[in-house]
Amino acid sequence: MGLAGLLRAFANDWQGPAWRLLQLAKCRDAAKRSVESSVEGSEAGGAPLSGHVSFKGVRFAYPTAASCAAASATSATSGESSSGSGPEVLGGVDLEVLPGRAVVVVGASGCGKSTLAKLVLGIYSPTAGAVTVDGKPVGAYDPTWFRQQV
């Protein structure tokens, strides 16, 4: 095989992955637009947050593979979803952080420190209880705008 054949083979091999990457990027952009347009009560472009963070009776357990399968079956038949039947990481956390105040959370590995941060950012949803910022549930904010504020 000569140089021209090698170049053709390389071009053919490269086109497949490049095309797939382009399609993935298009899907990502479409999904992002869909999520942004579906958030009701979004605060995008609104007043900045004051920073009053509240956890009320917050419980969180990571889902197990079995609970994910059960949740998929339940949501397919009833439209409901369940979450977290693994070991409980947070069990009834009540915490209030006033604007302008700092809180330090310390503890052993796996005790829920990072989980608290992910709940505040809306990355995770509590199994029970409520996480609010400035009196509104974290899920009520546009995620992109909210995370830029935090």
What does this structure look like?
The chain is an alpha+beta fold. It has two domains: about 1-40; about 55-60 and about 90-150, no CATH class. The protein is built from four helices and four strands; from the N terminus they run H-E-H-E-H-E-E-H. It has helices at about 5-40, 65-80, 115-120, 145-150; strands at about 55-60, 90-95, 130-135, 135. Strands 2-1-3-4 form a four-stranded antiparallel sheet, covered by helices on one side. Strand 3 (about 130-135) and strand 4 (about 135) form a beta hairpin. The longest helix is centred in the first third of the chain and has 36 residues, at about 5-40. The chain is globular. Residues about 35-45 and about 75-80 have low confidence and may be disordered.
State the low-pLDDT regions, or none.
37-43, 77-82
Number of strands: 4
Could you tell me the mean pLDDT? 75
Counting structural domains, the number is 2
Structural class: alpha+beta
Number of helices: 4
